From TrEMBL:
SUPFAM superfamilies xref list: NIF3 (NGG1p interacting factor 3)-like
Keywords: Metal-binding
PANTHER family: GTP CYCLOHYDROLASE 1 TYPE 2 HOMOLOG, NGG1 INTERACTING FACTOR 3
Name this protein carries in UniProt: GTP cyclohydrolase 1 type 2 homolog
InterPro entries in the record: DUF34/NIF3, DUF34/NIF3_sf
Organism superkingdom: Bacteria
Subunit and partners: Homohexamer.
Similarity field: Belongs to the GTP cyclohydrolase I type 2/NIF3 family.
Entry annotated with the keyword Lyase: no
Amino acid sequence: MKGIDLVKRFEQFAPKDIAVKGDPVGLQIGSLNKDINKVMTTLDVRPEVVDEAINNHVDFIFAHHPVMFRPAKNLDLSIPQNAMYAKLIKHDITVYAAHTNLDNAVGGMNDWLASALNLSDVQGLSFMFNKYDQDFYMGRVGELTSESTVIEFANTCKKIFNIKGLRLISNTPTKKIKKVAILGGDGGKFYHDAMHKHADVYITGDVYYHTGHDMLADGISVIDPGHHIESICKKQLLKLFNTWNQQYNWGIDIVDSQINTDPFTFI
């Protein structure tokens, strides 16, 4: 099969035009018109992930985070990012990225995160737009199966997302909570939407220092487990693609990256 066959099916699930305006989703490097035999899902495309793909004879990388957020100003191969691009081209590896379109998709990133927390009565958090006669939202909000305190739930999040540490922003860590909002990635600016939906706690990554002050002043508890919890996409995309692989008889191999691309280590 050709790369375009996978992309066309995926874009029925998460069309590019439900991405945030200006988000560089879609084809990143290579050609969608060449035959593919082995696909690898990943959160990030980093040099070590590219080496993993080469070692595993992967010819198509499907990533959540775009490779080329910032266009290259030159092709100086002493720059690691440029060297990575050159290696991908040399080994004829196509790279495709689905970022905020996967975040906004029904059944996509934020639904996967809500499911990991076992939330019920899940609804959209922050309205983005209506397209295809459907409302699309960034983030999700739902109910815990049982009440917990903020601090207890923060520790539960560490276990669920398999992380050694997180940041807690709360004036009331012993307060009982039931309603939870979550938005994968850098979602600090959406915390007012969590308040408007009456969430007791909001989970998102990369909370800015001064935004943290504002959250405290507004009285909402926020759990920042980091951006890397979106690595849940690796297994979920693997599962989704394997379903389509069988359904459409694509006959390709699909693997998920085993590389941890979280740049932060808790010590």
